[in-house]
Amino acid sequence: MNKQCLFLLCLLLPAVAMADTDDHEAAKRLREAGEIVSLEKLFADVRNRHSGRVFKIELEHERGQYVYEIEMVDDAGRVHEYYYDARDGQLLWEETGDDEEHE
């Protein structure tokens, strides 16, 4: 396991520990069934967009589809929110600080 993956795993462990067990199990089943992509794929995209620290990850069911919401703070202190289609990993939109939504 490379250092970046290990670092991300360390960041995720507190979030997983605090997550509702039922939600975690549901997400695990969806991933194992191939219905949603792994977070590792999305982290690669987030890292290519900005350097910084991921502090929040949610898997939500919105408008009939699963959506990953990933929030990170960049080196300048700006918060970036990324919304991905959990089925294929496609970026749906992003928000930065007080910006409006971007399709």
Give your account of this protein's structure:
- The chain has 103 residues and is α+β, with helices and mostly antiparallel strands.
- It has a single domain (3-96), classed as Nuclear Transport Factor 2, Chain: A (Roll).
- It has three helices and four strands; from the N terminus they run αααββββ.
- The chain has helices spanning 3-18, 21-32, 39-49, and strands at residues 52-62, 65-74, 79-85, 91-96.
- The protein has a four-stranded antiparallel beta sheet, covered by helices on one side.
- A hairpin with a 5-residue loop joins β3 and β4 (91-96).
- The longest helix is centred in the N-terminal third of the chain and has 16 residues, at 3-18.
- The N and C termini lie far apart (34 Å).
- The model is unreliable at 13-19 (pLDDT under 50).
* Beta-strand segment tally: 4
**Structural class designation:** alpha+beta
Q: What does the largest sheet look like?
A: 4 strands, antiparallel
> Into which percentage range does the β-strand content fall?
25-35%
Helix share bin: 25-40%
Radius of gyration: 14 Å
The ordered string of helix (H) and strand (E) elements is HHHEEEE
User: Total helix count?
Assistant: 3
How far is the N terminus from the C terminus?
Answer: 34 Å
CATH fold-level assignment: Nuclear Transport Factor 2, Chain: A
Summarize this structure briefly.
The chain is built from 3 helices and 4 strands; from the N terminus they run αααββββ.
Secondary structure layout:
Elements: H1 3-18, H2 21-32, H3 39-49, E1 52-62, E2 65-74, E3 79-85, E4 91-96
Antiparallel strand pairs: 1-2, 2-3, 3-4
